[in-house]
Amino acid sequence: MKIRMACTPEGTQVIGGEVNGTINPLTYFCENLSNMGYKMSLLKVDSIASALLKEYSIESNFVVCTMNPQNDSILQVSKKEKLPLWGIIKSAPFAIKSDSTEAVQLVLVNPYKVFFERMGLLMIASFIMLVLVIGCIIYQIKVIIYQKKVAKLREDFSYAMIHDMKTPLSSIMMCSDALNDEKIESMPELKKSFLGVVKSETVHLLKLINRLLTISKLENDKLTMVKEKVKLEPMLERIRETFKAKSIKPLHFTLNLQAKEVNADKEYLEEAVYNLVDNAVKYSKDEGEVEIEITSECSGGYSCIKVRDNGIGFSEEDKRKIFDKFERGSAIKSSRLGKVAGFGLGLNYVYRVMEAHGGTVTASSVVGKFSEFTLYMSASEEEDTENKMIDGKQN
Fold first, then answer.
1. What is the average per-residue pLDDT within 208-232?
2. pLDDT tens digit string along 129-170?
3. 255: pLDDT confidence band, cut at 50, 70 and 90?
């Protein structure tokens, strides 16, 4: 309008109109200039808009147009530019006629590229922050779920611990009461039997407590393995005789010892194998003989002891957690029914002991057919050399 006004003769006056809240005073000025023959040039407005956009570094295609604000119809454009249905930004229309039938408007075509270029780093940073926040929320949810699981496991553990300790304590109390009876003095055989039960149950309690203490020490790296050459046959014979004496079910042991001795801590290795045999008996089938096969070999720098049974087995899902503390796979629920007693520490104990030996333990099973656990321990150089010599002679 300033350019158009400069084209009028000197002294020209442009009459305005009524000032109100709906019509801009400049609208009258623009309309009267047009009525006087000084029409608005869209090309000049286009040129001015281009200069201003460049000044603000907005390099986007645009169109200056006249339109009817009442129905949004376009009357005239400054240049041929196909306007898409989306991806455009329109300025507020500026009325150039007092009856609001014509207005001028700036239309930016696809300006988002400019915005993305300017705000790209901020948007990337915001996206990374969003991902981190979501990740933290997911992690928090996992922690809550894990804490609930641990609380449940501890509840099961407390129940199993009370159950396991209650049984031997009840037996000790019952036998103690019987031994205090004066009549027992006249029955030496019965007295001897009661004393045997008291000793057996006391040893059982001591083993449970020692197992808990050992796991605690292993978790805190405070237990040192005293390795020595351990002859397997006498150790396995002791375990076999112990279970044959106390098991209600018929047991059949098979020993196949290619490696006669291993380099390990005798006390903890025997307890680890004892736990595996104990599991084989606990989780055996209701009917039939319990078959336990124990084999040993030495190869690839490791001594291996395998304990295989014909029990109920475990699923692949249970396989991923049976070595965890307080876990007993599908047997956890049955413990509440009194079918299987225990803390759920046996296999965790075995895992910790093997880890302290610098080895590991693996498990494989088929539900309803068998379970097999393999203990791996680092073999001494003498064992490995001796095994290679034996293999050479056999070949």
1. 76
2. 999 999 999 999 999 998 888 777 666 666 666 766 777 788
3. very high
Cβ atoms of 374 and 305 closer than 8 Å: yes
Residue 5 has pLDDT above 60, yes or no: yes
Place of tokens 């300017």: 118
Beta-ladder partners of 306: 295, 374
State how far the alpha carbon of 237 is from the alpha carbons of 207, 242, 279, 293, 374, in Å: 19, 9, 17, 13, 19
Helices (H), the chain: 2-6, 25-35, 42-55, 112-179, 188-219, 232-246, 266-282, 316-319, 331-336, 346-356, 381-394
Strands 360-366 and 370-378: antiparallel
How many CB atoms are closer than 10 A to CB 116?
10
Cα-based distances in Å from 267 to 201, 227, 353, 386: 20, 10, 11, 24
Count how many residues are written for the chain: 395
Query: Any bridge partners for residue 183, and if so which?
Result: none
Is the pLDDT score of 38 beyond 70? yes
What are phi and psi for residue 364, nearest 5 degrees?
A: -145, 150
How many CB atoms are located within 10 Å of the residue 79 CB?
12
Query: DSSP labels for 126-194?
Result: HHHHHHHHHHHHHHHHHHHHHHHHHHHHHHHHHHHHHHHHHHHHHHHHHHHHHHTSGGGGG-HHHHHHH
Q: What is the spatial distance between Cα 46 and Cα 74, in angstroms, rounded to a whole number? A: 16
| The pLDDT value given to residue 273 | 92
Q: What is the pLDDT of residues 318-329, one digit of tens each?
A: 887 788 766 654
Question: What is the distance of C-alpha 286 from the center of its chain?
Answer: 37
